[in-house]
Amino acid sequence: MQNVKCKMTDLKANLLDCAARHSSLVITGFMGTGKTSVGRKVAQKLGREFVDMDEVIERHEGKTVRAIFEMRGEAYFRARESELCAELAARDNLVIVTGGGTLVNRHNRALFANAWIVCLDASVDAIVARLDDSKDRPLLAGGELRGQVERLLRARREAYAQIEHHVDTTNKSVAEVADEILAALEGSNGTPADAGESGER
Length: 201
Description:
The chain is α/β, with parallel strands linked by helices. The chain contains nine helices and five strands; from the N terminus they run H-E-H-E-H-H-H-E-H-E-H-H-E-H.
C-alpha cells in the first residue's frame, strides 16, 4: 500500500511539474463528447486556468453561439474563433476547450502547434443520446438529429484525424475520461501534439 501511495504521489508531482513547465492543454472534439465537463475536471486536477472558447466568445459578443450564428452567420463566428485561438496560443499553462469545429480549420490547429491537444470521441449513439434535448446547437438545426450528427462527423473526420491524441468517452464518466487524458499527458511527457496540415473544411 505504501508503494501505491508513493507512485500516486510521484504521478501527481510529475503532473504538477508538467503544469508548471509546459504549454497549454487543448481539448477538442465533436459536440456531445463531454469537452466542457472533462476540461473543467482536468483543469482542477492540474491546477490550471480553464478556458471554454464558446463561453469567452458569448461573453464578448453578449449573445449565445446560436444567436451569433443566426444574427451574424457562421463565417463571423469562425473569424472570432480564429482571433481567440491566436490570443490563447500566446499564453501558457491553460486548459482550453474549443468548439467542435474550431480545429477543423488547419490554421487554428497550426496556432496551437506548441500545445498538447487531445480530441474526445464518442459513438454516434452516445452523441445522439447526449444531444437529444439540446436546443442550442445551430449546426444541428433543420433536420433529424442522427442524420445531422452523422453528416457533420463525416465532414470533420479528416480534420479530427490530424490530432495525435484521442480519448473515447462512450460509456465513461467525466472522472474516467479526465484520468485517461492525464495518463496520456504523463505518458507523452507533455510532448506537444502535431497541429497537422490538412483537413480544412
